[in-house]
Every structure is written in structure tokens, then in C-alpha cells.
Amino acid sequence: MQVKQQLLSLKPYIPGKTTEEVKREYQLDKIVKLASNENPYGCSPNVLEAISTKIPSFAIYPDGGTTELREKVATHLGVNGDQLIFSSGLDELIQMLIRAMLSPDTNTVMAKETFPQYRHHAIIENAELREVPLKDGRHDLEEMARQIDDKTNIVWICNPNNPTGTYVNQSELEEFLSKVPSHVLVVLDEAYFEYATIEDYPKTIPLLNKYENLLIMRTFSKAFGLAGFRIGYGIGAPTLIKQLEVARLPFNTSALAQTAAITALEDIEFVEKTIAANAKELEKYYQFFDKHQISYYPSQGNFVFINIPGLSSDEIFQSLLEKGWIVRAFPNGVRITVGKEDENEELMKILAEIVTVKL
Ligand SMILES: *Cc1c(COP(=O)(O)O)cnc(C)c1O
């Protein structure tokens, strides 16, 4: 038996230690996980009500055409239903796009420090990777544009970028799009779209009228708090969507996920509360970081990327882990999901101790 050679260079996704493992290992009573950018406030309470009253027959396949949710999302965004493709989370849409568009004779351009699934699936398809290092923590769009050639099929812009939380603004994005040849698909991963509150964060839906080679990705996993259901979607030109539909599994989103998403989309108040609380907590973190000489990037997401001078990201990660706090370490920094007020306050105290010990 032989899997594709390139699979041997990859690792399966490891979700990190479980809460129970950390509890046992360090003999702790309480563990707080701020590692996966989940919504600390859960999801709209209407979701529980909807999935327990509108119970579908479990013996029947879900609606493969996602009819009702498609209508709701189309109205919500002001687009047509045929501009949408639904997936089992954006992870699946990324896989679908790559399966449909990348092969060994093509290349794909992305930031070096960005969402790892673009890279992972491109390697499985044996496409050439062109990874462009971030510049001051931000996408280096000039260099990314330079990397594009006639073999480039997809360019990825994660906006705001995971893990740094930095963003590409409206004019930067438009200038970039004007330079990209029309045979290249530009994927805008807007997983944290709802959280981005800054004024010049791009309004991308109107750009679809001008650029047929644009695909916007949004998800119910983050601000809507439905990560456990696995549902997200892409927005693009009808011709592109029709072609991608061929690569979509017939029943890729479950009946319960569709019901949950429809309900969550209607509860605007829940999302607004989530966004406001996140923005307020982020401000508190910034003030704290400034006071304690912790470096960070201002974030448009529900997470913040930090560094403590004199400590490696693994050392920061380890110091927090021993006290029961699970965050995410990257080679050049640590990503912390913004939690609830009490969690953030407690974490700040621990970070202050770590900084003091170091000084
Ligand atoms: C979380 C995340 C996704 C994937 O989300 P799904 O749960 O699969 O919808 C995609 N892109 C980015 C940047 C993310 O942070």
C-alpha cells in the first residue's frame, strides 16, 4: 500500500492537549482554553430552541441544495442564491477549492504565516507553494503580486489574518486586485469578518461586481458561535460557483447545521453583543500589554498575537499551560483567544507575573 508521497511530509491535525490531559498532568482543578478562537459567549440561545423543536427526520438526507439557508444568507448579504456555496466549515471549502483548482503543474500564493489549511491541501495536490513572509505582521501584497505568474491558480488573503489579527484595508485590497490577472482566483478568507470593526476594513461584496475572480469565505464558526456544527460558505461569481459545485459532496452540511445557521443568522443582537464585548476586552488587553512591555499586533479578530521580550513562544506557552491556561504557540509568537471579562482579567494577572519573573 502506498499513499501519495507528499502525504509523508505532513502531519494530521493535532488539536492540542485536551483539558483533561492538562488537568491530570499539572494537577490543576481548572483549565481555561483560549486556543481556538471559539466564541466565549456560546451561540444564540435561539439555536438550542430551534434544533430541539424543528427536529428533522434523521433517516432522511439533509437538503443538499441548502435551499432555506441559501435564501436567508442571500438576502442577508444582498446577493443572489447562485453566488453561494455551502460547506462543512470553511476547512471543507478550502479543501474543495484546492481539489478543484490546484494540480502539480500549478502554483498558489499565500502568506507564510497564515491559516495552515491552504498550505496543507496544496501540498496534498502537489501544487507549488509560493509563501510570502508577512511584513511587519501584515500581508506583503506587493511581493504577493510579484509572485503571481501564468501558472498561478489561487492567491489567498486571510483578512483579518489568523494568527496575527492584522488586516488588509480597502484601498490596499483594491490596488492588489487591480494588479491580479483575471485567470487567478483571489480567495478572501473572512472567517472573522463580523469582528472587524475598523473603518477601512474592506467592503468586499460590492467588489464581486467588478472582479469575477474573487471568492469571499465566511463562517458560522466564529462570531456566530457554531463551530461544533461545521457550516460556512463562499460567495463568488455564479459561473465559478457552478463549477465548484461539481467538487462538493452531495450532503456536505447536516440538517441540524442548516437549522442552526438559519436561526443564528436571525439573531443579530447576539452577534452585536459578541462583537462589542470582544472590542472592549481587546482594548483592555492593549492597555495591559502597553503597561507591561508585551508586544502585540492590534487585532481585528477575537484573538491577539503577542510576544514577551526575552521569552520564546514555547516558554510563554509552557508557563501559561502549567497554570492551566491553554493558548496557541507559533514559531514567532503566541495567539490568545479573547475570552470573557473574568477570564481575561485572570490571564492578565498571570502574564504580569510571567513578565515580572523574567525581568
Ligand atoms: C477558524 C478559521 C477557519 C475555519 O473555520 P471553520 O470552522 O472550518 O468554518 C478558516 N479560516 C480561518 C482564518 C479561521 O481562523
TrEMBL record:
**Which pathway does the protein contribute to?**
Amino-acid biosynthesis; L-histidine biosynthesis; L-histidine from 5-phospho-alpha-D-ribose 1-diphosphate: step 7/9
Can you state the subunit structure given in the record? Homodimer.
Q: Which GO terms describe its biological process?
A: L-histidine biosynthetic process
* Gene name of this polypeptide: hisC
Q: Which domain of life is it from?
A: Bacteria
Report if keyword Amino-acid biosynthesis is assigned.
Answer: yes
| PANTHER family referenced in this protein's UniProt entry, alphabetically | HISTIDINOL-PHOSPHATE AMINOTRANSFERASE (PTHR43643:SF3), HISTIDINOL-PHOSPHATE AMINOTRANSFERASE 2 (PTHR43643)
Instruction: Quote the Pfam families the UniProt record gives.
Output: Aminotran_1_2 (PF00155)
Q: What is this protein called?
A: Histidinol-phosphate aminotransferase
Q: Which cofactor does it need?
A: pyridoxal 5'-phosphate
InterPro entries to which the protein is assigned, alphabetical = Aminotrans_II_pyridoxalP_BS (IPR001917), Aminotransferase_I/II_large (IPR004839), HisP_aminotrans (IPR005861), HistidinolP_aminotransfase (IPR050106), PyrdxlP-dep_Trfase (IPR015424), PyrdxlP-dep_Trfase_major (IPR015421), PyrdxlP-dep_Trfase_small (IPR015422)
Instruction: Write down the species.
Output: Lederbergia citrisecunda
Question: To which protein family does this belong?
Answer: Belongs to the class-II pyridoxal-phosphate-dependent aminotransferase family. Histidinol-phosphate aminotransferase subfamily.
Query: Keyword annotations for this protein?
Result: Amino-acid biosynthesis, Aminotransferase, Histidine biosynthesis, Pyridoxal phosphate, Transferase
Output the lineage of the source organism. Answer: Bacteria, Bacillati, Bacillota, Bacilli, Bacillales
